[in-house]
Amino acid sequence: MFTPQGPTLRELAVQALSSVERGYDLLAPKFDHTPFRTPDLLLDPVARALRELGPYETGLDLCCGTGAGLGVLREVCAGRAVGVDFSAGMLEVARAGGPAASYVRGDALALPFGPVFDLVVSFGAFGHFVPGQYPDLFGQVRQVLRPGGQFAFPLPAPPRPGSRGYWAMLGFDGVMRVRNAVWRPPFVMYYRPFRLGDVHRELGRAGFDVALRALPELGERPDGSPRCRLVVATRRS
């Protein structure tokens, strides 16, 4: 996809007609050659912001994929860094070429850890959860954080209504909803529902205090607001 090393159109079609887990298992060997891999352009500002918020000892990358976000944890955590993902194929690629870390296969809605982490991060995974799952997802994150630990993730500003990005996102979500209405198993990947207001409210209900930090390296919108913020949710004791 977009590069000679990326997946072919046929491979993407097979992935799209699979379950989420099976689809990512199939895509894993070529995932880092697609636009879906979180770019360093985003990872570097997040690492800078977290260095200012730290120090941290232990960190977890939730839905780590092939391990791009684990590089951030290795920068900001003095101790153990762990990646968790439910795709065995993605974890295999991460182990082979990712940062030095521990890799665990697990479900984000049933995390196999106690309260042992000071920091949880996640990059680009929230489209795989529908709004009704946010309480369980955020509850699981709270469960694995020590009191005072932080859950941090970048959240881009939504595209302006009528813009090219707005129509692209609306069209993608529409195609996915039609696909899931007529084909099984479902492939959950919706970009529009993960909105700041809803996320802020559900994090508060889950036992977090929420703060926002602009990521100025990623620029501003025409109205002067940040193009991307870092959501920092601190677990209450």
UniProtKB/TrEMBL annotation:
GO terms for molecular function: methyltransferase activity. GO terms for biological process: methylation. Residues 60-149 form the Methyltransferase domain. It comes from the Bacteria. Keywords: Methyltransferase, Transferase. It holds the Pfam family Methyltransf_25. Transmembrane segments: none annotated. The keyword Phosphoprotein does not apply. Coiled coil: none annotated. This is Class I SAM-dependent methyltransferase. It comes from Streptomyces kunmingensis.
